Automatic annotation (TrEMBL):
Record's subcellular location: Chromosome; Cytoplasm; Nucleus
Family matches, as SUPFAM superfamilies: Arginase/deacetylase
Record keywords, A-Z: Chromatin regulator, Chromosome, Cytoplasm, Hydrolase, Metal-binding, Nucleus, Repressor, Transcription, Transcription regulation
Organism: Lentinula lateritia
Keyword Metal-binding among UniProt keywords: yes
Cofactor: a divalent metal cation
Lineage, opening ranks: Eukaryota, Fungi, Dikarya, Basidiomycota, Agaricomycotina
Keyword Metal-binding: yes
Family per similarity comment: Belongs to the histone deacetylase family. HD type 1 subfamily.
Enzyme Commission number(s) from the entry: 3.5.1.98
Full protein name: Histone deacetylase 8
Length: 426
């Protein structure tokens, strides 16, 4: 990577990353659809006209040392020592069964997916890019010593650990975003905010950074907006509503459980709560897990009724555009996640790429039907880019959202107190 060249958006992908990500048992063939649709729209080309410049960069596969920054050695031994994907006795000890089976190429997959997210994080740390994307990452259920919920490697956690490391100020002279010149005042360590938009609670990431200690110096804040209901994976003990002000909670590990049918209007109503937390915490980096299993029509989840179009307030596209356009002076890492309607996941991530580049495609645009885009038939019956909302009822009442607001207001107060105390100690 030549640090004298500055690109605003680093898009991490390689043929190997696509090959092995496409073997993920929960999302077979999804990765290739995602990147070929982005390519078919010309988004990855230097000739693509957009506000921000995109550079495709290849992931550097993660080493055992890179993975060991979070994962336990015995888990890594179990994951990586059977490259042929054969079963071994300790599989169940490490969660390598049921929805996380071993598969051919598992060790290559682990190293490439984690490596892609680490490569993206390093592009931000070095000042090579202001925004970095790894749509094959975002494996937010993986634990230190255990695979869980289709996730084998905790790439989000590894990226956060890297971003929070104190470092010499990166070269910013070529950055077009002059507000970035103020990143990380010299008197404090970098702060990282993790925002998870997947329909499932980010248990793996939240647990990694959860702390019962209120007053210690904290560099990482996690927020998960997700569905919660009895029996819905995973359980989220950190965020039950209605809000009980007498229970203690960690304001650096926030959780916003939503009820079935969450639609654009619900996301529009809660968005100011997220903005407020961001304004108080003042992160230097934000890691956004953009799981798309909350979009309407997801065949596995079927719980939210969220849509894509940036023009609709509260939609996924709208939330991402708020982050890209309004969260100034913050370097951004966008990751993928869940999404079990593969063509819709491809629609969503190709579209979000266009939003990140500053020139959103029109959602009514036709899916390209040219010889280089052989996946075209999979986009039936609409053959357009949009993922529209369905007719599901949004159960998140005004009263329910008021409870969420109370919880976030209390969290905001607590955060302010802790950060002020931290500042006065510095
Ligand atoms: Zn999910």
């Amino acid at each position: 990577m030549n640090s004298s060249t500055h690109f605003q958006v680093a898009y991490v992908v390689s043929q190997d990353l696509i090959k092995y990500s496409s073997r993920l048992p929960s999302n077979p063939g999804r990765s290739i659809l995602v990147h070929s649709l982005a390519n078919a729209f010309g988004l990855l080309s230097h000739e693509h006209f957009s506000l921000r410049r995109l550079q495709v960069i290849k992931p550097k596969p993660a080493t055992i040392n890179d993975l060991g920054a979070y994962h336990a050695q015995n888990y890594l031994d179990a994951l990586l020592r059977t490259p042929d994907g054969t079963d071994s006795e300790d599989s169940s000890d490490f969660g390598l069964e049921d929805n996380c089976p071993r598969f051919p190429g598992l060790s290559e997959y682990i190293c490439l997916v984690a490596g892609a997210t680490i490569t993206a994080a390093n592009a931000l740390r070095s000042g090579y890019a202001d925004i970095a994307i790894n749509w094959d990452g975002g494996r937010h259920h993986a634990q230190k010593s255990r695979a869980s919920g289709f996730c084998y490697v905790a790439d989000c956690v590894l990226a956060i650990l890297l971003l929070k490391r104190t470092q010499p100020a990166p070269a910013l002279s070529l950055s077009s975003d002059t507000t970035l010149a103020n990143v990380t005042p010299s008197h404090r360590k970098p702060r990282v905010m993790y925002l998870d938009l997947d329909v499932h609670f980010s248990d793996g990431v939240s647990q990694a950074f959860y702390s019962a200690a209120r007053s210690s110096s904290r560099q990482v804040l996690t927020v998960s907006i997700h569905h919660a209901a009895p029996g819905f994976f995973p359980s989220s003990p950190l965020g039950q509503l209605p809000f009980d002000p007498s229970t203690s909670f960690d304001p650096f590990t926030l959780s916003l459980p939503l009820l079935a049918g969450a639609s654009n209007s619900t996301f529009a109503a809660i968005w100011p709560l997220i903005e407020r937390i961001k304004d108080i915490f003042k992160p230097d980096y934000v890691v956004v897990q953009c799981g798309v299993d909350g979009l309407a029509g997801d065949p596995k989840c079927k719980v939210f009724n969220w849509s894509l179009d940036v023009a609709a307030e509260g939609s996924l596209g709208w939330c991402v555009s708020r982050i890209v356009d309004d969260w100034k002076g913050i370097r951004k890492l966008f990751l993928g996640g869940g999404g079990y309607h593969a063509p819709n996941a491809a629609r969503a991530w190709a579209y979000l790429t266009s939003i990140i580049l500053g020139n959103p495609l029109d959602v009514s645009i036709s899916i390209p039907d040219d010889p280089s885009h052989s996946a075209f038939p999979l986009y039936a019956p609409s053959f357009t880019l949009d993922v529209p909302a369905g007719n599901m009822l949004d159960m998140n009442s005004t009263e329910y959202l008021a409870e969420a607001r109370k919880r976030f207001e209390r969290a905001s107060e607590m955060l302010q107190e802790i950060l002020q105390a931290q500042q006065s100690q510095a």
